[in-house]
Amino acid sequence: MVEPAEQLFEVRGLRVVYRRPGAKPLEAVKGVDFTLAEGETLGIVGESGSGKSTIAKTLLLLQPFSGGVALFRGRNIAAFTAAERRQYRRDVQMVFQDAVGSLNPRMTIRQALNEILKKSLGGVRGRQSPRSLSQTPESLLSLVGLSKAVLDQYPRELSGGQCQRASFARALTVNPKVLVADEPVSALDVSVQARILNLMRDLRRELGLAILLIAHDLSVVRNVCDRVCVMHQGLFEDTGPAEEVFDHPQSDYTKNLLAAVPDVRRSLAARTPQ
Ligand SMILES: Nc1ncnc2c1ncn2[C@@H]1O[C@H](COP(=O)(O)OP(=O)(O)O)[C@@H](O)[C@H]1O
Ligand SMILES: [Mg+2]
Hints:
The chain has helices at 52-59, 82-91, 99-102, 109-121, 130-133, 137-143, 160-172, 190-207, 218-222, 242-247, 252-260, 263-269; strands at 7-18, 26-37, 41-46, 67-72, 75-76, 92-95, 178-182, 210-215, 227-232, 235-241.
């Protein structure tokens, strides 16, 4: 019998208000609900300014939330103990749009990966899984489809796609359960985008990773995600299995969005089964 997938995130009524001195409070996220199970890929798609990155920052504990509740494996992320927070910061890793900028320019890829491997073998050695104990910069690179030649190069010597693969390798160093990828392909050429999205599918299949994929481009989430949330002005207009949301959108907002890019539906129909 197949074990049911563990629920990793359960988020209910999440609200985030930015307050800055001298400025009116800005409610960037106005109450959203979603879940993310082990091994699942959830897409959050919406135009710029709709609140997607704010959700990512909140889950990464970079931005406090003003209302609602966010549970990770049943525990409220806003009420973690110090030890829980440390473990959570390993379990939930982030990949950014600006891959080059997110890597240290003064370190080769080998140095960058070794630094994190060393750190992660300190502190919590007893709790490391066998996989992460056996990880080396070489094994991490092969996981993300990079050749060993890249190890002794600096980020500026790599292409955008190679840098993004290296930042996936870095995120995988600590053996996370969830990857939060905020616009991971927006800065890349279309042909490179497809390869990075394929890499995400492979990682999910091979490692059982859960992925929260944030993008402003519907065609980016269409092929990769099991479920999709369409975000607009701080709210989810549509939520559901990708096919349902794209084939039978409920909200006028999503209908209009799809009408503007008709090929999204067609290519969803052609998507290859996983
Ligand atoms: N640190 C911040 N302080 C104040 N307002 C912010 C901050 N970050 C984002 N915002 C505002 O919150 C809204 C949502 O932004 P964001 O979550 O970055 O949207 P998206 O990622 O969908 O483009 C926007 O109006 C943005 O200007
Ligand atoms: Mg954003």
